Automatic annotation (TrEMBL):
Species whose genome carries this gene: Bathycoccus prasinos
Gene Ontology MF terms: ATP binding; glutamate 5-kinase activity; RNA binding
Annotated protein name in UniProt: Glutamate 5-kinase
Cellular component GO terms, alphabetical: cytosol
Ranges of residues in domain Aspartate/glutamate/uridylate kinase: 13-244
Length: 404
């Protein structure tokens, strides 16, 4: 066979997010070295297989900073946490670098803020940088740039950051490793009837069935189940599958999800996955691309509800018209906090308040609330179709978008 013309095989990209609870021992506050070693070994195996390119999103900078200064309780003041992150980040990277160097893998530190990704030019720069890092066969180790992030432009938690990274690098899988073995119907520590959810293909349905708030994060971390669902929704819209599982089960989860043990499936979802100890979120059949994908990284300013007609239009790729946006009615019932401006990014909800899309709007809340505009400009586009990114996926949405 002529190998000179053989196309270079595209590698499968994977994002692995490791939470504070997996890296710092809760009782002593020290780095969990054996766990860190396991994570690095697992990633080394994937990276050296020539099939995968891996990025790590790691928490633990604040925890490592606390360890350095001998502080036992996480301070409430943001400023102090940001200082601790600055102290701990270098310490954390030192552990990763040492461990990976022993295993023969090179690493890079990438610190990002939501503000970076919300600027299209910086988003593109970051995308290209990741691409070059992968070409150099280096593992990017990502964290939020905690020291400079301002409140309104912070990811705030690394679950969300990891989903943005997965979207940015077109990852096939996002693994959210934590101290629980998946998403439960309620808190398994308190409710003996709590059941683990195996496969999720409709986040909105799931949110109506699950007591998400009960699955809060650990004391050392920031995220919980709510942030994991937000992450899964972003990743799914970007065409990436999300897995939530225990970091101690990392090896078997990664092997199973990626199809490394069975071989044949090549990582595709099979019914046999249903019996594994993690929760798998499926990806959108039609992943958002280009500008629509970038929109997933633009901070959301408000939420707006639409009627059934508006929902149908969004589903079939049509623009959202002014007349289909629900604004305050004569009883004063409001569908949004009315604070968005022209060209802001908002979440579009159905009549029941379930997220269906992200949108960049042509009118401000004030414009819309103005009666004259509503009557005369009802057929105007509130959002152009190129500025609408669907973030809700189930069978109905998939089959509609497939047919278009
Ligand atoms: N950027 C922060 C992590 C914030 C965070 O999301 O923590 P976690 O809930 O443990 O994933 C740090 O490095 O400490």
């Amino acid at each position: 066979m002529d190998t000179t013309n053989t196309e270079k095989k595209k590698k499968r990209r994977i994002v692995i997010k490791v939470g504070t609870s997996s890296l710092i021992k809760a009782d002593t506050g020290v780095i969990h070295l054996s766990q860190l070693a396991k994570i690095c070994e697992q990633i080394t195996e994937l990276q050296k297989s020539s099939e995968f390119q891996c990025a790590i999103v790691t928490s633990g900078a604040v925890g490592a900073g606390m360890l350095q200064l001998g502080i036992k309780e996480k301070p409430k003041e943001l400023q102090k946490r940001q200082a601790l992150a600055a102290i701990g980040q270098a310490h954390l990277m030192h552990y990763y670098e040492d461990m990976f160097a022993t295993l023969g893998v090179k690493t890079a530190q990438v610190l990002l803020t939501l503000e970076n990704l919300s600027q299209k030019s910086q988003y593109n720069r970051a995308m290209n940088t990741f691409s070059s890092l992968f070409d150099y066969d280096v593992v990017p180790i990502v964290n939020e740039n905690d020291t400079v992030a301002v409140e309104e432009l912070r990811f705030g938690d690394n679950d969300t950051l990891s989903a943005h990274v997965a979207s940015l690098i077109s990852a096939e899988y996002l693994f959210l490793f934590t101290d629980v073995d998946g998403l439960y119907t309620s808190n398994p520590m308190k409710d003996p009837n709590a059941k683990r959810i195996q496969v999720v293909d409709d986040i909105n349905k799931l949110m109506s069935e699950v007591d998400v708030a009960s699955g809060a994060g650990s004391a050392g971390g920031t995220g919980g189940m709510v942030t994991k669902l937000t992450a899964a929704r972003i990743a799914s819209a970007a065409g990436c599958k999300t897995v939530i599982g225990k970091s101690t089960d990392m090896e078997k989860i990664v092997e199973c999800a990626l199809g490394l043990n069975g071989g044949k499936g090549g990582g595709e979802v099979t019914p046999s996955l249903n019996s594994k100890e993690y929760t798998l979120f499926l990806a959108a059949a039609d992943a958002a691309k280009g500008k629509k994908r970038w929109m997933l990284s633009v901070p959301v300013k408000d939420r707006v509800r639409v009627n059934k007609e508006g929902e149908e239009d969004i589903k079939s790729g049509e623009p959202l018209l002014v007349k289909n946006v629900l604004i305050s009615d004569s009883n004063g019932t409001k569908s949004s906090s009315n604070s968005y401006k022209v060209q802001d990014c908002i979440i579009v909800e159905d009549e029941e308040g379930r997220e269906i899309a992200r949108a960049i709007v042509n009118y401000s809340a004030e414009d819309l609330a103005h009666h004259n505009l509503r009557v005369s400009d009802a057929e105007e586009e509130f959002v152009h179709s190129s500025n609408l990114c669907v973030t809700h996926f189930n069978e109905e949405y998939r089959s509609v978008s497939r047919n278009n």
